[in-house]
């Protein structure tokens, strides 16, 4: 492929050898590196060993038409950017090839050689812009993942501090209160106060552990997501506002804690929406692996989403779920019918 120090490489495919030479020389005169092929078979063979920035393709070749060659290349390799050359009466075919991904077309008439350099330049510019956009999108995804990863590391750090430091100190204070109650037995009023302090400390320990668990939802073991979702269902049931059940017919292992954490948070947000907004009575979490895909579903029997949110637009919670799905490359679908509940489906191709 072309670099800032190298001219773009163009492959010209046409079975009219005289016209093929003229087109190649015209493009070389513009500073391009040009290779030629007189048949679809020759073009395939050349492309097996070379990279190309643009292919200029005659629609009608003796051993197979241009569209068939394009379809073959798209099936068996990375798509090759191409421009088609078409004769009079082939405009309908040209339109069809444009639908296959042709960047442009040029008529095979007396103005062909004059128009060809401008068509090639325009097509190569489109290719460069497309590559720059893909690179920018990839960098955006990388930075987004990095930012989220930093945030998750901070959550883990704070959660560990709560659990290991504050939690242990509160537990030690509770133990001290228990020991002090024995000494305060002759003083009922003091003993009652110490008993109250002990109860308050136990509640503080429980709240600290709950906060720590929320900040560090899943561990780093492959089965941590499955275990974490089961515990989330149990905690939801314990709150008493909505019943929640967890279904996982077969073990599902997610080795990447980054993926597991986001899937857990998506589930957490979906359950939060079911309780707060949909007033659901029952929610079901389903986790399963089908082939190379992981599927996560959170379905409730609540009131459904308002019409403005049915498509997934609007609402901070829905936006957060979509953001998390994007961060891990998952497909998120939110289906809702008024009065019939909401189903959040997240599908992720598992890393190999």
Defining traits:
352 residues, alpha/beta, Rossmann fold, Heat Shock Protein 90, 3 domains, five-stranded parallel sheet, five-stranded mixed sheet, 9 helices, 54% helix, elongated
Description of the molecule:
With 352 residues, the chain is of the alpha/beta class. It has three domains: 101 residues, Rossmann fold, CATH 3.40.50.2300; 75 residues; 126 residues, Histidine kinase-like ATPase, C-terminal domain (Heat Shock Protein 90, 2-Layer Sandwich). The chain is 54% helix and 17% strand. It has a five-stranded parallel beta sheet with strand order 2-1-3-4-5, with helices on both faces. Helix 8 runs antiparallel to helix 9. The longest helix has 72 residues. The protein starts with 8 loop residues before the first strand and ends with a strand.
Number of helices: 9
What do we call the CATH topology of the largest domain?
Heat Shock Protein 90
Outline the biggest β-sheet.
5 strands, parallel
Described by the principal axes of the CA atoms, the overall outline is elongated
Summarize the structure.
By secondary structure, the chain is an alpha/beta fold.
Strand-helix topology:
Elements: E1 9-13, H1 17-28, E2 33-37, H2 40-49, E3 54-58, H3 66-76, E4 82-86, H4 91-99, E5 104-107, H5 112-183, H6 188-215, H7 224-239, E6 243-247, H8 257-276, E7 282-290, E8 293-300, H9 316-327, E9 331-336, E10 342-349
Parallel strand pairs: 1-2, 1-3, 3-4, 4-5, 6-7
Antiparallel strand pairs: 7-8, 8-10, 9-10
Helix pairs in contact: 1-5, 5-6, 7-8, 8-9
């Amino acid at each position: 492929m072309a670099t800032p120090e190298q001219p773009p490489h163009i492959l010209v495919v046409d079975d009219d050898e005289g016209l093929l030479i003229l087109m190649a020389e015209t493009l070389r005169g513009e500073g391009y590196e040009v290779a030629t092929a007189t048949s679809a078979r020759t073009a395939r063979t050349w492309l097996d060993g070379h990279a190309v920035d643009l292919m200029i393709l005659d629609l009608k070749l003796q051993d197979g038409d241009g569209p068939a060659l394009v379809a073959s290349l798209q099936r068996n390799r990375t798509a090759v950017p191409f421009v088609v050359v078409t004769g009079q009466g082939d405009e309908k075919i040209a339109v069809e090839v444009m639908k296959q991904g042709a960047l442009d077309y040029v008529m095979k008439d007396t103005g062909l050689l004059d128009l060809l350099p401008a068509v090639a330049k325009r097509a190569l510019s489109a290719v460069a812009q497309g590559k720059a956009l893909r690179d920018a999108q990839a960098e955006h995804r990388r930075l987004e993942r990095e930012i989220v990863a930093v945030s998750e590391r901070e959550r883990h750090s704070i959660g560990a501090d709560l659990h290991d430091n504050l939690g242990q100190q509160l537990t030690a204070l509770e133990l001290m209160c228990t020991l002090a109650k024995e000494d305060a037995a002759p003083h009922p009023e003091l003993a009652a106060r110490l008993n109250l302090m002990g109860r308050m400390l136990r509640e503080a320990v429980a709240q600290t552990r709950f906060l720590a668990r929320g900040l560090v939802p899943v561990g780093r073991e492959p089965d941590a997501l499955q275990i974490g979702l089961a515990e989330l269902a149990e905690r939801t049931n314990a709150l008493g506002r909505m019943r929640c059940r967890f279904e996982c017919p077969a073990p599902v292992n997610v080795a990447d804690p980054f993926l597991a954490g986001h899937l857990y948070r998506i589930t957490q947000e979906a359950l939060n929406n079911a309780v707060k907004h949909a007033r659901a009575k029952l929610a079901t979490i389903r986790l399963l692996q089908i082939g190379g895909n992981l599927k996560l579903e959170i379905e409730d029997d609540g009131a459904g989403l308002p019409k403005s949110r049915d498509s997934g637009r609007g609402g901070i919670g829905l936006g957060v779920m979509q953001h998390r799905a994007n961060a891990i490359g998952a497909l998120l679908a939110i289906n809702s019918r008024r009065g019939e509940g909401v189903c959040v489906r997240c599908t992720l191709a598992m890393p190999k």
